Amino acid sequence: MIFPHVGDQFRLVYGRNLLPGLTADLSNYLVVTDGFVFEKYKEQLKNDYKVYIVKDVEISTLEQDVEKYRGVDTVVAMGGGMAIDAGKWMAEHLGRKIHSVPTVLSVNAAFCYKSAMRVHNVVTYMGRIFPEAIYIDFDIIKGAPKYLNISGAGDLLACLTASYDWKLNSMVTKSHKFSQEICDGAQYLLGMLAENIDNIREVNDDGIYFMCEAFRWVAEYSARMNHTMWESASEHAFFDNMEFVCKKPFLHGQIIGMTVYFMSLFQDNQHERALMMLKRLGIDVTLEGLGITEDQLRTGLLTLADFTEREGLRYTIINAKPITEEWVDMAVAKYKKDFSIVSDGQSADKCTA
């Protein structure tokens, strides 16, 4: 066992060819997924079912669509983060049990009791639901592009900045119950993440197993504490604001990697460790990789405090000290140097003469 036992809210089933066995025991179920995943795996679904293809996770969309499925007996959420979150939300609002089948590990959505929804294009975490089980089919996970699975490590790296914010929060507002044991556990997790980087990059069975066990460990502690602050704080607030500024979705683990880079620098907290791990993992946090401009990045940083206050987000380093234009100039210059980014946003090794 990589991590000590914490709880049993998130039961994991590992194996291969799991979908036929799962759905053979179900009937009149709702599959919540995306179009690509459904076409790829529909032949493995057994018995009678309905399918909902996720368009987005705006609450207004799902509130309208969920009414069509009041008669189903259970929900199977299958796909990436959006499909899993939509499935959780629909299962909770239908009052039905949910089985989660992640097809990629780019985000820890299957391991969160809350659903990451959108309200007028702003990320809003809501609800409380636990799966009957999370089905980790090694072949299905490996069927996704490697870079998508590797990026999920960014969500684990978030514990570096979030645990710092949590301790700060406990000294100022005490809004989220604090545990030194869990805070220390975050450092253990980061050490284990560093030890497993080669397997994560290979997306082999050991790498997949480590990622899922780490996600579960985080999830069980968050369920026990009834909040997620040790895994989601200033770096997730920065991500939320980047979505708001850019009006586009991001690959979750990838954008979190970038926001951990900046928030660890702002915290003066293990920043070089974060940089080293991002480089070893090979998560592309460049402007080009994220599909953003330098102006958007600067706006995301300079408006972050106002966004945090307006949305009523948790007290973090963002509230504790100002993000000045001088700091942003320094931070962006360092970022461009660390990742060899030239003025137009491209990495130097991607430019041609």
TrEMBL record:
SUPFAM superfamilies: Dehydroquinate synthase-like (SSF56796)
EC numbers, comma separated: 1.1.1.261
Domain of life: Bacteria
Key words, A-Z: Cytoplasm, Lipid biosynthesis, Lipid metabolism, Metal-binding, NAD, NADP, Oxidoreductase, Phospholipid biosynthesis, Phospholipid metabolism
GO molecular function: glycerol-1-phosphate dehydrogenase [NAD(P)+] activity; metal ion binding
UniProt keyword Metal-binding present: yes
Cross-referenced InterPro entries: G1PDH, Glycerol_DH
Coiled-coil ranges from the UniProt annotation: none
Keyword Cytoplasm set for record: yes
Name of the protein in question: Glycerol-1-phosphate dehydrogenase [NAD(P)+]
Chain's gene name: egsA_4
